[in-house]
Amino acid sequence: MTLRLSGRGWLIAAYLALAAAPTLTWFVTGQLTGILAALGTWIWIEFRRERWIRAGIATGLACGLKLFLAPLLLYFVIRRRWSAVAAGAAAIAASFAAGVALFGLAAHRDWIVALRDVQWTWAPMNASIVAPFARITVPSPRMADAPGPGFAWTAASAGVSLLVLLAGLLASLRARAADRAVCVLYLTCLLCSPLGWVYYHWILAGPGVAVFRRHDRRLVSAACAGLLPPFFLLAVPSVPFAVTLGSTYTWSTLLLWALAVAGAIRK
Predict the structure, then answer these.
(1) How many domains are contained in the chain?
(2) Residue 174 belongs to some domain of the structure
(3) HEC secondary structure over the chain
(4) Which of 21, 195, 198, 211 is buried most deeply by CB count within 10 Å?
(5) Is the residue at 2 inside a domain?
(6) Domain span at residue 133?
(7) pLDDT in tens, the chain (267 residues)
(8) Does residue 102 form part of some domain?
(9) Does residue 189 sit within a domain?
């Protein structure tokens, strides 16, 4: 895979990569983006080489850090890549054991409690498909003390998330190239997670470039443009704004996902 750009093109690409929301939010939050992107690249490489045990180990380690990548394990199960499933389960168990040894069970209990009490799906940095539904009642941090989304909106967001998960898994199974399968899976993971933070989009660096360089540049550029606005400009206390322009990270991710899925189903 070779990406050919002029010197000016590389400068523009570097500027946009540094200015885009995935990078800006990474710098602001100091999250594990670099580690997760490295693991995501490792998974992609092992997919391409069909080294399933190594792919399972890398996936298990990634899931040990961030559970939103769990659909990758579902892919292994559906494809009956049992060596990858076993390796992934072993890696997750090893990660858990290492965490207990270093921090104790109390830290894990606190982590589980924190997961149960998640109330910030409305946050501007959230690019998941759940986020626009949450922003109907909490369009900005200034309204964070407002009641959470009602049952109807919660059920609707869960239903849409499940549809995206099923469609993404189906498309990844139909994809002929490992690049597209991994790209679809990563985008599906980001969309389906209640907290698909935009700073984790860097896991798409390898498979995303491999796949989208073959697509219509205008559509890909339109999708990527939605990842350029700074997150602090999206926190406006207006529901119409919050679920449209304020959810630009979600709509950009969804468009990239649709392009990747369409390519997988068409071929």
Answers:
(1) 1
(2) yes
(3) CCCCCCHHHHHHHHHHHHHCHHHHHHHHHCCCHHHHHHHHHHHHHHHHHCCHHHHHHHHHHHHHHCHHHCHHHHHHHHCCCHHHHHHHHHHHHHHHHHHHHHHCHHHHHHHHHHHHCCCCCCCCCECCCCHHHHCCCCCCHHHCCCCCCCHHHHHHHHHHHHHHHHHHHHHHHHCCCHHHHHHHHHHHHHHHCCCCEHHHHHHHHHHHHHHHCCCCHHHHHHHHHCCCCCHHHCCCCCHHHHHCHHHHHHHHHHHHHHHHHHHHHHC
(4) 198
(5) no
(6) 9-266
(7) 555 656 665 677 676 777 789 999 998 888 889 999 999 999 999 999 999 999 999 999 999 989 899 999 999 999 999 999 999 999 999 988 888 888 888 877 777 777 666 677 888 999 999 999 988 877 666 555 555 556 667 788 899 999 999 999 999 999 989 999 999 999 999 999 999 999 999 999 999 999 998 888 888 888 889 999 998 888 777 888 989 999 999 999 999 999 999 999 875
(8) yes
(9) yes
Tokens encoding 183: 């790209």
Whether this model's pTM surpasses 0.85: yes
